[in-house]
Amino acid sequence: MALTGIEIFKKLPKTNCGECGVPTCLAFAMKLAGGQAELSACPHVSDEAKAELAEASAPPIRTVAVGTAEQAVKVGGETVLFRHEKTFVNKSPLAILVSDAMPDAEVEGRLTRFKELEYDRVGLTLRADMLALKNESGDAAKFTALAKKVAEATDAPLILIGDDVEALKGAVEASGSRKPLLYAATKDNVDKFAKLAKDTGCPLAVRANSVAELAELTPKVDEAGVKDIVLDSGARTFRQALEDQVAIRRGALMSKVKEVGYPTIAFPCEMTEDRMEETLMAAAFIAKYAGIIVLSDIQGQSLFLLLLTRLNIYTDPQRPMATDQGIYEIGNPDENSPVLITTNFSLTYFIVSGEIETSRVPAYLLILDTEGLSVMTAWAAGKFVADLIGPFVKKSGIEDKVSHRKIIIPGYAAAISGELEEELPDWEVQIGPREASSISAFLKTWAA
Length: 448
Known about the structure:
- 39% of the residues lie in helices and 16% in strands.
- By secondary structure, the protein is of the alpha/beta class.
- The chain has three domains: 53 residues, Electron transport complex subunit B, putative Fe-S cluster (3-methyladenine DNA Glycosylase II, Chain A, domain 3, Orthogonal Bundle); 250 residues, Alpha-Beta Barrel (TIM Barrel), CATH 3.20.20.20; 122 residues, Rossmann fold (3-Layer(aba) Sandwich), CATH 3.40.50.11600.
- The protein has an eight-stranded parallel sheet. It has a three-stranded mixed sheet with strand order 13-15-14, sandwiched between helices. It has a two-stranded antiparallel ribbon with strand order 1-2.
- α5 packs parallel to α6.
- The longest helix is centred in the middle third of the chain and has 16 residues.
- The protein is globular.
- The chain starts with a helix and ends with a helix.
- The mean pLDDT is 92.
C-alpha cells in the first residue's frame, strides 16, 4: 500500500533546505505521495530511508526519460485517469518519422520542417519534440549514416526503430550520447534487445500482440536490468489501439498491475494514409493516453492543432493559463502610440492583442500579473486594482517609450479610474470599451 504524505515525511531529513525545489520537507513529502516528485530530488535523504521510500513514493506509471540534458523528454509519471482529478504531468512528445529508405531530399525536407515549425503561445514555444528513425532499408550502414546525419543536424531526442540489433547498435553509437529509445523488443528477440539497452543505458520499447502479452514481456526486460520501458500493444487499428491505451492506463492506476506501469507509444502513422485522419487519431491519443506519438510527417496546419490540443490537455485545470507580465509591442508602436492595460489571463491577452492587430493601430499593451484571472474576476479578487496597477506602470518602463501620459483601462474596470489617477497623477486614465470587439473602432478614433 502506498504511504501517505505524513508517513513519507517522517522518513525525510526535515532540513527544509529547499534544494529539491519545494520549500519544505512536508510539501515535498506530499508531492511524493501524489506521484508529482521523485525521491532522487532530495540530496539529504539517507540510504536506509531511500530504500524504504523508493517503491512507495514511485508513481504507478514509471517516468522514463528519452535523450539527455535539456533536450531530454520525459514520459509517464501519470497518477490520474482524468485531468480534472489532478492534472496530467508529462506531455506526449510528438515524433516525426524519418526512414533510411527515403530519398535525401525527403529526409532534408522533414528535418527542415522539424526545426522550423514552431509557435509562440502563452509565453511558450510549441514545436514537435522527437525524431523517429526507421531502419526500413535493412542496411545497417545506411541506418548508421542516417543516425549520424540527424544527430549532426539537430539535438532532438531520437527513437531508433528496427529489428536488427547490430543496426540499432551502430545507430546508437552514431547518435553520440543521446540515449535514444530503442524500438522494439518482442517475445522473439527480447533477450538481445534487453542486452543492448542494458549495455548502452538506453530506454527500451516493448512490442507485443496484446496488453496481456506485454504484461508477460516486461518482467523479462526488468529482470535483465532494464528499468526504463515504453509499451506498444502492437495494435494498428485506431479502435483497438485506443482501447489498449485505456486498458494499460486503467491497469496501472486502478488495478495496480506493475507489469503495465510504464508509458506507451502510439503509431497513428501506421494506421492510415490520410494525413487529416492521422491528425485526428493523434489528437485522440494525446487525450487517451499515449506517452509518445509517432507521426508520418508534419505540416504547419496540422502540427499547430496538435500542439494546442496538447497544451490544453496538459495544462493544470486548477491553474488558469497565463501570459508573462510586461510590455507587449503590437504593430511597431512609437512614442505617440496608445497604451492599453489588461490582465494576464491568456485568453484575455490573445483576444485583446488580436483586436489591436485588427485595428492596424500600433500600440503598447501592458500585461499585469493577476495570477491568470480575467478582468472582472481579477478586479473582484483585488488583483486588478489601482494600488497594484500604479506601481506596475511606474516600474514597467513604459514612460520611457511614449511621449504622452495616457493609459486606457478596460471598460469593465471603470470603477478604478479615480483611484488610478491618484496612483498615477501624471497620467490621464481613459476608459476603454467593455467588450474587446469594440477595441478596433475605439483605437481608430483615439489615433485620429
